[in-house]
Fold each of these.
Amino acid sequence: MKLPIYLDYHATTPVDPRVVEAMVPYFAERFGNASSRTHKFGWDAAEAVDRARGEVARLIGARAREVIFTSGATESNNLAIKGTAAALRDRGDHVITVVTEHHAVLDTCRRLEREGVRVTYLPVGRDGLIDLDQVREAMTDRTILISVMAANNEIGVLQPIGEIGRIARARGVVFHTDAAQATGKIPFDVEALQADLVSLTAHKLYGPKGVGALFIRPRTPKLPILPMFDGGSQEHGLRPGTLNVPGIVGFGRACAICQDEMEQDAARLGALRDRLLAGLLDRVEGIAVNGSLAERLPQNLNVSVEGVEGEALLMGLGDIAVSAGAACASGAAEPSYVLKALGVSDDLALASLRFGLGRFTTDEEVDYVIDRLATVVPRLRQTVDSWAGARSYRPARSTTGMS
Ligand SMILES: *Cc1c(COP(=O)(O)O)cnc(C)c1O
C-alpha cells in the first residue's frame, strides 16, 4: 500500500490515466483552434470538441447542443445565476438558495444582493436537507430563480432536487442546480430532475482541472442568460474565448468512463464507506455522523470526533489526506459553515473529518484509516485530559446521529 493515502476526492480527483491518454494528442499533434473553419487543424479540434460535448451531454441525459463549456463549476454557477438575474431583471428580483451551498453560489448571491436582488437563504435540518414546504413558502411573484445543489461537497447529502424542479416548473421559475459533486458519481438526468441549468466540473470526476460545463435547457420562450464576458461567438456567444480543446477532450472522456463504470464504482465505494463507518463506530468512541446517511453520496462520510482538538486530529492522521471541511476553506481554523448550519457545535465542527472515497480507493487503505484513528484518537484524548484536567473527555455512546 502506498502512503500517503488520498481520501479527499471531494476536493479533487486524480485524472484517470485513460483520460490523460485521450488528452495528450491535443496538446501538440492536434493543436488546432476549434474555431478555425478553413483547414484540417481546426476541423480536427472542432470534431474532438463535438465528440466531447456529446459525451458530457449523455452523462446527464441532455443533447450536445444544450451544453456549453466553461472553466469549471465556479464559472458555471456565476454564469447561471448572474446571467439569469441580469436577463430577467424586469420580470423579477428574487432568488432562492440554501445556506449550505458552495461558496461559488453563496458569494455570487451575495454580490447580487449588493445590486438590489433579494435572496432567500433556506435553512437545513440536522440531516442537512431542506424542507420543501419552505421552498414553496419562500416563492413570490418576484421569484425568478431557485438554485439548490444536488450533492453537498462536505457532507455529501442529496437535496430533493427532483421535487424542487417540479415546484419551480409549476411556477415558471428557473431552476439551477450545482451538480459538481453529483455528476459522475450517481445517476443524473436533466429530464427527470426538470433542471433548467446544471453546473458541472471535470476535476471532480477524474478529468482535468480548469474545465467544466453548464447545461442550459432550451425552453420556449428561450431561457435568457446574459454572458459575463464579451469577445466572440464561441458557445453561442454565452462563453466567448478560444476553447480549451485538450481539457474538453479529457472532460468528455472522463464523462464517458463514469457513464460506463458509475454503477459498479458506486456499489463498491458505498460498501467501502459503510465498512469505514462500521469500523469507526466499533473502534473509536464518540463518533457521530454529520448529515443524513440515507440521502447521501455513497462515496462520502463526514464524522465528528468528540473530545479532541480539530487541528491535532488532522495532524495526528499524518499520512492520510482528508480534510476538516471544504478545500477552499481548509487552512483557516474556522468551523465549517455547513456543519454549523446543521446545528453542530463549533468544537465538534472543528473536530470533524470529511472522507471522500473514489475510484482508486482500496479496502486496505480504508482498514489502515480505521486502525490509525483507533490509535490516534485515544492518544489525543489523553493529551486533552492532562492539559485540561477537569474538562477531560468522558465518552458518550457512539451514535450515527442521523437517519
Ligand atoms: C468543486 C465544487 C465547485 C467548484 O468547482 P470548480 O470547477 O473547482 O470551480 C462548485 N460547487 C461544488 C459543489 C463543488 O464541489
Note: Residues 245-283 form the longest helix (39 residues).
Amino acid sequence: MERVYNFSAGPATLPVPVLKQVQEELLSYKGSGMSVMELSHRSALFQEIIDSAEKLLRELMDIPDHYKVLFLQGGASLQFSMVPLNLAHGKKIEFVNTGSWSKKAISEAKKLPNVLTSVIASSEDRNFSYIPDIPAPSKDAAYLHITANNTIEGTAIFNVPKTGDVPLVADMSSNILASQYDVNDFGLIYAGAQKNIGPAGLTIVIVREDLIGGSENLPSMLDYKIMADDGSMHNTPPTFSIYVAKLVFEWIKAQGGVSGMEALNRRKAGLLYSYIDESNLFSSPVVPAVRSLTNIPFTTGDAELDKAFIKEAFEKGFVNLKGHRSVGGMRASLYNAFPLEGVEELVAFMKDFAHSHEGGKVHV
Ligand SMILES: *Cc1c(COP(=O)(O)O)cnc(C)c1O
C-alpha cells in the first residue's frame, strides 16, 4: 500500500504502526468479538483503555496528581468558551494575541455575558510573524491565555511567561507532546487531538484541580467539575478516538517520550528551515527565534509559482502543502508522526524545483 507524505495541519498523519495495530484489532478487540467502536463505554475493556490513556499521558507530560486529565469533545474551539465559563468567575481575562486561533479564542470569550477581556500583548502589527514580549498579567485577572503554537502563522511560545498567582491557560492544539513544557507552569492546557494525538473528535484538557468547580448553573456538558467527577464519562465519550490516542501515547513512549519527539522534531524542522534560509527561491516569513517546530510556512514570494510548486509536489506524493487560505504560500506541518525521510525528500524536491524555476522562470 502506497502512503503519501501528508503535510496536513490537521487532521494529520498518524504513525503507521498505530494504524496497523488499529487494523489488526478492528474486528475483534482483545478476543471480545467486537470492535472498539462497538464496545460499551461502561465495559471493563473500555475502562482499561481510557485508564491507560490517562496514565500514559500523565507519564509522557509528567502531569502532577493535583491536575485532572479530561477527555472531552467539541474540539479546541469549544474550549474557547468552556475555559471562560469555568474559570472567569466574573473577573477579567487577559489574552496574548499571536494569530488566528488566539483571535478566535478572544472573540468567543467576548460573546459570553459577564466576561471582560483584554489583550495585553499582540503581534498583529507585523502579521503575527513574531512573538511579542508578554508583560505580567494584572493581579486581578482570572487567567492569562496564550496560544502555545500558532498553527497557521508558524510561530511558537517556547518561553512560557511566569504569571505568578494568575493561572496561565494554553491552547496547545498543535504542539502538545511535540515540545517539552512543564505542566506546573500552567493552570490549564487544552488541545484538539487531530494534530498530534489521534483522530478528530477528542479534546484533551489538563486542569489544576483547585481551578474547577464553583461556577453555578453551568450546563453539565460544559462543566469541568462534572466531567472530572464522572471520569470523562458523563455521557458517551469519543471511544474510538480515545483508543487511538492511547496507541499513539504508547508509540510516543517507545520513541523516547516527549524529549525524544522534541529532538526529532528539531532535526526535521531544522532541515527544512536551513534549506529555506539558504535558498534563493524560498523564504520564511517568521522570525527565527520563535519558529514553530510543527508548522512551517514558506513561500516563493510569487503566488503563481507557489501554485506550481504545490501542484508539482502533489504529483510527487507530497500532499497538503498549501498554506492556510488566510496567509497563502505553503505550509509543511511536521507533527510527531511525520517521518524524517519525508522532510529529507521534500528538501531534495525543493532543490530540484528551485533549480528549474530560478528567478521565477521555467527553464527547459
Ligand atoms: C486547530 C486548532 C484549533 C481548532 O481546533 P478544533 O479542534 O478544530 O476546534 C484551535 N487552536 C489551535 C492552536 C489549533 O491549531
Note: The CA atoms of residues 130 and 288 lie 9 Å apart.
